[in-house]
Design goal:
Helices cover 55% and strands 14% of the residues. It is an alpha/beta fold. The chain folds into 2 domains: 2-145, Response regulator (Rossmann fold); 150-207, Winged helix-like DNA-binding domain superfamily/Winged helix DNA-binding domain (Arc Repressor Mutant, subunit A).
Amino acid sequence: MIKVLIADDHHVVRRGLLFFLKTQKDIMVIGEASNGREAVELASELQPDIVLMDLVMPEMDGIQATRRIKSVYPHIHILMLTSFSDRDHVVPAIEAGAAGYQLKDIEPDDLVDTIRAIIAGKNRMHPDATTQLTKSNEENINLPHMLHPLTRREKDVLAELTMGKSNKEIAASLFVTEKTVKTHISNIFSKLEVQDRTQAALYAVKNGLTEN
């Protein structure tokens, strides 16, 4: 079962998503949040596989909530589900760690397909979001980083990995467990579409992904 947390400040939106997702045999909605801060708290408590995250919410917006969740729980996937498709929203959302970006007018079947794809380790973007990322690339913003977004912690791990450190050494340097390091490295491999540490290091150097 794919465990889903819905985070949206509009009750009608949450009800609509819940109503449809409950009909899917492989999806289970385990919680609802009405603001970003609650989304962070419930993500910590319930450990969903994926969060359907609105962008504009009270107390804490979706980008801030995504950043906080991904920094502590890198295994939790984030799908932005919003009404905004401009660059000022798209780029920060992807940089924060969102694995997908879709608009709220998405067809229900397409939403389910997107959820399943993200759980399988793939990125899913609305065409308008992809257009904004492409424009950013044309203005010398790193597109590979946007399409394969690394969280700040993943970039820290990648930087250590690029220096040839072992998982144990990375864990000691970043004050985390080896298990957490392994999770970060697995996510890095998936996002960068590489098979091993050497390929990850080469990709990082080539694309400037370890730069601050």
